[in-house]
Write a structure and sequence with these properties.
alpha+beta; 2 domains; five-stranded antiparallel sheet; 24% strand
């Protein structure tokens, strides 16, 4: 039973951690090398990682997809620890609409134009900060979604992920607050109710035993007594 509990706890932790790792925003320092629009064929697996019909894009197994090609500074998960190494990264540029995740992005066309305007070369680089969410997986053809782009003067101007810090602080405080409320509720309502239920059960059990004893005595009274000679 203990192993089952730990199994469900680990599964819940992985699901929560994976969802946060996908949804929370990250800030990538990059240099835009080009933009393009490709014809994308969706599979049954990667379809969930792209915009849905009510986000303003066409629903279907095949449609156009805006891409932003970059040369970026690599970062760890959640964007907390930047590393001094670079590599290529491709972002998709899709509206999120009113659905999940709640970024309410409706300006993918404007963002594509802004990305095209900020293109640069290695000889004369123009560094930008790309706010994005999602994962990059080459095997399943999954791209992170770019939310915003702003120019910076140097690749060392790496922004601190304030939103993620405040988010985790808020979640921690909310968890402690809910836990304290639950403890008070349990002490004031649940524990007394359980105690009363236990007392009622004990009383009912004692009453049943008493009636059972009376019934046995009644049966014994009907037994024939041994004859005396």
């Amino acid at each position: 039973m203990v192993y089952v509990k730990w199994f469900f706890r680990i599964v819940a932790f992985v699901l929560v951690f994976g969802t946060l790792g996908y949804v929370l925003p990250r800030h990538d320092v990059a240099r835009i090398t080009g933009t393009e629009v490709i014809r994308m064929d969706f599979s049954s697996f990667n379809r969930m990682f792209y915009a849905q019909s009510d986000s303003g894009n066409v629903e279907g197994e095949t449609r156009d997809l805006r891409l932003i090609n970059t040369y970026k500074r690599k970062t760890w998960l959640f964007g907390f620890i930047p590393r001094d190494s670079y590599g290529v990264m491709v972002y998709r540029n899709e509206d999120t609409g009113w659905i999940w995740p709640p970024y309410f992005k409706f300006d993918s066309s404007d963002l594509q134009a802004e990305a095209s305007n900020l293109q640069s070369t290695a000889a004369d680089p123009q560094w930008v900060v790309i706010t994005q969410y999602g994962w990059r997986n080459r095997f399943f053809t999954i791209y992170p979604n770019a939310i915003a782009i702003r120019p910076i003067d140097s690749p060392d101007d790496s922004p601190f992920p304030w939103f993620n810090v405040f988010f985790f602080v808020f979640v921690g405080v909310a968890w402690l607050f809910i836990r304290a409320m639950w403890r008070q509720f349990r002490e004031r309502s649940v524990d007394p109710a359980m105690e009363r239920a236990g007392e009622a059960w004990d009383a009912a059990d004692a009453q049943i035993d008493e009636r059972r004893g009376r019934f046995r005595k009644w049966l014994d009274s009907w037994k024939s007594k041994p004859k005396r000679y």
